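Appendix B, record 7
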Amino acid sequence: MNKAEIRKLLREKRRNEANRAEKDENICKTVLELPEFAKADTILCYHAAFGEPNLSAVIAEALTQGKRVYLPVTGENGQMEAAETLPGDALKIGRFGIFEPQGKAVPKEEIDLVLCPGVGFDRNFTRLGQGGGFYDRYLQNVHPFCVGICYTDCIMEHLPQEEHDRRMDCIVTENETWRAK
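Structure tokens (predicted):
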């Protein structure tokens, strides 16, 4: 299968995911227990869309702990950037129908930890995103700890990988955590 066919298959699985709230809770609990989460001062997270696992509890806890939390925004150049979100901030609907903070973008070098959504992942830590390459371009030339977030049903044995694709350092599902060596 090519990437488009795999995306279609995995999006369908994600749409039909049962017990989503319980699975999201397990994913959040695992993320909050990661040593990299404890060490991080700055975290790039995401606002769940299109059936992605909901990390609202991670965002809330990070803010409670005084961490700086950023969400992806579409910059003026059409590329992904990260803008800070604060408790009580109003989010706006961005270019792709995803909620974004309205704050100013920060340099990507300031991010310690990236919680990265994906349509799917494989056991080689390859990420299959929505197809726009936004995270791959954003993560070029920087090296934060990257955690892929998805449901177990969206883990594949092998995904096609291109040279520019950014591998994850860790993958968290509702059932398991894998770490790259």
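Remarks on this record: DSSP finds five helices and 13 strands in the chain. The radius of gyration is 15 Å.
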